[in-house]
Amino acid sequence: MQERIYTPASHLIHHNARIGRVYSAIGQPKYKQLDGQTIIGKIITEYKNLNRKMIDDWRNALRSALDVIFPRRYLLQDLYDDLETDGHFQSQFILRFAATLGYNFELIDDATGEVDKETTKLFQSNWFYQFMKKALTVHKKGYTLLELINPATMEFKIVPRRNVLPNKKVIVLSVMDQDGIDYTTGGYENRIIEVGETDDLGLMNDIIPQLIWKRNAQQSWAEFSEKFGMPLVTATTSKTNDRDLDKLEQLLEALGESARAVLPAGTSINVTPFAGKDSYQVYDAQINRCNSEISKPIVGGTMATDNGSSRSQSEVHERNLDDKIASEDRLLFSFLVNDKLIPLMRTWGWPIPEKRTFVFPKSFDLSLMDHWTIVFQGLQYFDISIDWISKTFNMPVDAVKKIVAALPTKPGGVKPNEEPADEPPENEPPVKEPPVKGKKPKPAASFFD
Question: Is the pTM of this model over 0.85?
Answer without folding.
Answer: no
